[in-house]
Design brief:
By secondary structure, this protein is α/β, with parallel strands linked by helices. It is 42% helix and 19% strand.
């Protein structure tokens, strides 16, 4: 018996205690997928949420068959994205943040770009990108982490941390299958492995807006630096 083909696209959104932002995100992403990718699946990877994130997702899923809830223990954003990308069935697998800092309209161009690249990553730094609303302290901290990432891991991409990235299915399964970082440096680990294995990575400019309810804090930057060092040490073995 021939197995039915999987969806053309999987969208993975990691979420930790996102009851305030999740309903609007579900409405907007689902409406976009209905219009542009009718067969796509949407996965909410709950990172051990203790608020109404999971009940909201389950209630919404009753109205939208494309939506799946992945209920996970609280191990960090990287772990949630990893599990979501490995559970996904789409020919293209894209993860994005629940605050929709990059608008849903970017999904189609990123999916199209995977026809000529293994990985397509959003960049807030390349020509054509726009960013707004970001506090100066957050922007400076981001630049410090970005430069440290490029220095420690030898990466040439301008923006490793933008939470909007698309992968061909076979590439996603390979990279996320060996990912070890559970925290915010997971993007850097994925791109480091991709460079080591000769995969083609393309940066695309995005329009990015800072979310007032952002959960990223200063101590996350310190944790990220430690994770970067561990990634590099593992790569030297």
């Amino acid at each position: 018996m021939i197995e039915p083909a999987g969806p053309s696209l999987s969208v993975v959104i990691p979420a930790y205690n996102e009851e305030a932002r999740l309903p609007d995100a579900l409405d907007e992403v689902t409406a976009y997928l209905d219009a542009h990718f009718p067969d796509a699946e949407l996965i909410i990877a709950s990172d051990g949420s203790t608020d109404d994130t999971e009940p909201i997702t389950q209630e919404f899923a009753e109205k939208s068959p494309r939506l799946r809830l992945l209920s996970l223990p609280h191990h960090g954003k990287g772990h949630a994205v990893k599990r979501g990308m490995l559970e996904a069935k789409g020919a293209v697998r894209l993860f994005m943040d629940v605050d929709l800092a990059v608008p849903v309209e970017a999904i189609a161009p990123f999916v199209e770009a995977t026809q000529n690249a293994d990985i397509v990553i959003g960049s807030r730094s390349v020509a054509g990108a726009e960013r707004s609303g970001e506090p100066l302290s957050r922007r400076i901290g981001g630049r410090v982490v970005g430069r440290a990432t490029r220095l420690i891991l030898g990466l040439s991409v301008s923006d490793t941390q933008c939470g909007f990235k698309a992968f061909r299915a076979e590439v996603a399964e390979l990279l996320f299958g060996v990912q070890q970082v559970n925290g915010f440096a997971f993007d850097a680990e994925i791109l480091y492995l991709a460079r080591r294995w000769g995969m083609q990575v393309v940066e695309m400019p995005v329009t990015w807006s800072y979310g007032e309810m952002s959960t990223v804090r200063l101590h996350h930057g310190v944790q990220t630096l430690g994770e970067l060092v561990r990634i590099r040490l593992r790569g030297m073995r």
